[in-house]
């Protein structure tokens, strides 16, 4: 039965839908089923952190609904259906009260937000944005509210700080990090971004934890480690994401930082693959759009009968902080070297050079962003 069963993709985010599109370019006959825990609308997740400045409602960020996507890719799309178990031996999925057979299975589960301890008790006063429905809930919660507390100063926290400020909100960012985006930026570059965000009106409390967070009917109060207080109307948690691996782990698949897969995106089971934010590809978990798109093209070939190994050239990240244009290609974890920084004001050029003199990463702000293409050509591949 498994040999005649459909190709099943679990997840209808950018990873799942783009894989389906790429696969259909190569094979227009094989039955395909996509399973979504949400409503299955197709949208670009990076646009979520640009919506407030543009005055966009959630429905306006959706490009197509599930029915339109099903017609476009020639597949069945099940919505509002969580997968509770995988049985690799039988090649079946448990969907509610029924079993679904698969010939090959692709996990495109994405990542989930890391939870703060006050999340449940504060309800809608402290939300996070990880998908289109989250964006809609947060936008609704902001009705009649102006002061937003963002917890976390990573890439997502900084992007939303910029976007919400441009959207007319008063934004305060609190983070234990010593500077903005410390996993991506050296301190002088982070300081340049911070200055430009502060010029928009964003307030920062960095290197500082929250001792207590409490809500009343019309306010949110954060008591910080340094004794100061932050008063807000609405909280946004942006403390990072964790790959969704529980389903794979329960099925006996190998998991680490993500679902472990080889260069062909095959897991420890020969008929189960993974891509996108939930996958750890040859030791790398890259939660960015370009690696995802590259993976989708390679996996489509493999599933269509022509095995293809994915390779990742260096793929710089355009951070959506228009207050301070920023592009970064961080050095991979474990690479030794040092940052060398030049430039003035908000036009900074930071390059990460290893002990052999090889460029391993860069961060560019302001006018220095124009060097992106030149420097990218000098970088070694992330995965070859």
Task: Identify the notable features of this structure and list them briefly.
384 residues; alpha/beta; FAD/NAD(P)-binding domain; Enolase-like, domain 1; 3 domains; five-stranded parallel β-sheet; 27 strands; 29% strand
Strand order of the largest sheet: 5-2-1-9-21
CATH class designation of the largest domain: Alpha Beta
- The CATH architecture of the largest domain can be given as 3-Layer(bba) Sandwich
Helix content: 10-25%
Taken as a percent bin, the fraction of beta residues is 25-35%
Strand-pairing-aware structural class: alpha/beta
What Rg do the Cα atoms give? 22 Å
Based on Cα principal axes, name the global outline: globular
Distance between the termini: 37 Å
Low-confidence stretches: none
Largest sheet composition: 5 strands, parallel
CATH H-level superfamily title of the largest domain: FAD/NAD(P)-binding domain
CATH topology (level 3) name of the largest domain? FAD/NAD(P)-binding domain
Indicate how many domains the architecture comprises.
3
Per DSSP E runs of 2 or more residues, the count of β-strands stands at 27
């Amino acid at each position: 039965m498994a040999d005649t069963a459909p190709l099943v993709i679990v997840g209808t985010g950018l990873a799942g839908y783009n894989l389906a599109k790429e696969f259909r370019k190569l094979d227009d006959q094989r039955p395909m089923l996509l399973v979504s825990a949400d409503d299955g609308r197709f949208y670009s997740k990076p646009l979520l952190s640009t919506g407030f400045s543009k005055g966009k409602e959630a429905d306006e960020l959706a490009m197509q609904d599930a029915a339109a996507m099903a017609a476009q890719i020639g597949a069945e799309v099940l919505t509002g259906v969580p997968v509770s178990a995988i049985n690799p031996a039988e090649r079946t999925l448990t969907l509610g009260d029924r079993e679904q057979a698969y010939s090959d299975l692709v996990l495109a589960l994405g990542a989930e937000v890391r939870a703060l301890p006050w999340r449940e008790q504060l309800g809608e006063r402290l939300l996070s944005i990880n998908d289109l429905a989250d964006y809609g809930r947060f936008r609704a919660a902001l009705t009649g509210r102006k002061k937003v507390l963002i917890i976390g100063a990573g890439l997502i926290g900084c992007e939303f700080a910029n976007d919400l400020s441009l959207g007319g909100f008063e934004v305060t960012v609190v983070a234990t990090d010593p500077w903005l985006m410390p996993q991506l930026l050296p301190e002088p570059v982070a300081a340049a971004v911070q200055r430009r965000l502060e010029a928009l009106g964003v307030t920062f409390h960095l290197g500082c934890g929250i001792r207590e967070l409490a809500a009343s009917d019309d306010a949110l109060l954060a008591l910080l480690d340094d004794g100061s207080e932050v008063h807000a109307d609405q909280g946004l948690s942006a403390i990072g994401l964790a790959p969704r691996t529980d389903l794979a782990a329960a099925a006996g698949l190998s998991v680490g930082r993500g679902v472990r897969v080889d260069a062909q995106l095959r897991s420890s089971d020969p008929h189960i693959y993974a891509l996108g934010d939930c996958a750890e590809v040859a030791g790398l978990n890259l939660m960015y759009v370009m690696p995802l798109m590259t993976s989708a093209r390679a996996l489509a070939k493999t599933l269509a009968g022509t095995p293809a190994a994915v390779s990742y050239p260096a793929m710089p990240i355009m951070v959506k902080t228009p207050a301070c244009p920023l592009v970064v290609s961080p050095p991979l974890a474990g690479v030794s070297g040092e940052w060398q920084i030049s430039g003035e004001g908000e036009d900074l050029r930071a390059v990460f050079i290893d002990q052999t003199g090889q460029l391993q990463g860069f961060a560019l702000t302001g006018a220095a962003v124009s060097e992106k293409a030149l420097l990218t050509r000098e970088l070694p591949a992330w995965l070859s």
